[in-house]
Amino acid sequence: GLLKESVELELGNLGSAERLTGSFVIRGLEVGEQELDVALSCDQLTGIRASATVNVISGAVAMPVLAETDELSINEVDFKVYENRIMHHTDEYDDEEQLILRRGQNFSVEIALSQPVKKVDVAFRFTLRKRIGGKRHTLTLINNNVPVSDSHVQTSVDLPANMHVGRYSFLVGVRTPSQHMAFFDKDDGCTVLFNPWCKEDDVYMEDQRGLKEYVMNESGGIWVGSHRRNRPMRWDFGQFDMISLETALFLIEKIPNRFRDQAALVIRHLSSALNSEDNNGVLEGNWSGDYA
Questions:
Q1: CA distance 235 to 228
Q2: Of 24, 37, 52, 236, which one has the fewest beta carbons inside 10 Å?
Q3: How far is CA 239 from CA 8, 214, 242, 251, 271, in A?
């Protein structure tokens, strides 16, 4: 507007502790240093009034906007570990603090921002922690125009059904329409597993009884003895013990990244990695004839 004492700009919601920077031109002001009252509103921001000292040059004002506000940052990200683990059938794993997900499935987060805005783009960047052969594998998933309520963002993302399995570093980023950006690095990352509940996954199992028996059941029986004298013996699978998961991930990280998206190739490489004879694996065969 062509105003001298006060300025109203269509810019919108900044709190008292936030900062907005930039410059613009206003015509019709007298040359020299002036104190202006400024009201801001825009698509991303709503309703703030503040004062700023500006230097008017040749009737135009170049104003570093509102020195009373902070840069955008992410205060906290709630990865909803408990809820997501239940949805992903990983809640049985012993370490209750670890985010363990299954590919081909949705998971949700809540992001707390340092200032209220109306909408943001949210990016999730996953990077495999171990690189064996080739380039480091990184996957970025983006949700656009996610609404913000009281500085909080509720959003979710679908992991691809062919996502590489293993341990990931995990970074969350947000960007406002005015291109302000902020990032949050999850220190302990996350783990992504195969998903027998997902139809698009290589390991999909339709039979619910089979899922309970072969995936979730933690104990079973094996047969021991000779072909004439044999008996069943209880066997604890222990697949939800963290030592079991850590061992499996250790072996998976020996597999080149490019093979970790296909279950058949993962199993083929794992069977090789298990062999202590050729690959310094974890299992040692006994071919001596003495099996006592």
A1: 21
A2: 236
A3: 63, 11, 8, 15, 17
* Element holding 82 (H helix, E strand): helix 81-87
The dihedrals phi and psi of 35, each to the nearest 5 degrees, come to -100, 125
Of 274, 278, 255, 275, the closest CA to residue 266 belongs to: 255
**b vs e for 168-178, b when ≥16 Cβ sit within 10 Å of the residue's Cβ?**
bbbbbbbbbee
SS3 content of the chain, % helix, strand, coil (to 5): 15, 35, 45
Backbone φ and ψ for 125, nearest 5 degrees, come out as -115, 120
pLDDT recorded at residue 131: 65
Q: Which of 120, 165, 158, 161 is nearest to 141 (CA)?
A: 158
Residue 182 near residue 74, CB atoms below 8 Å: yes
The pLDDT tens digits of the residues spanning 224-278 come to 888 888 999 999 999 999 999 999 998 898 888 889 999 999 999 888 877 766 6
H/E element holding 224? strand 219-225
What are the start-end ranges of the E strands in 26-99?
Answer: 32-40, 48-57, 60-61, 74-78
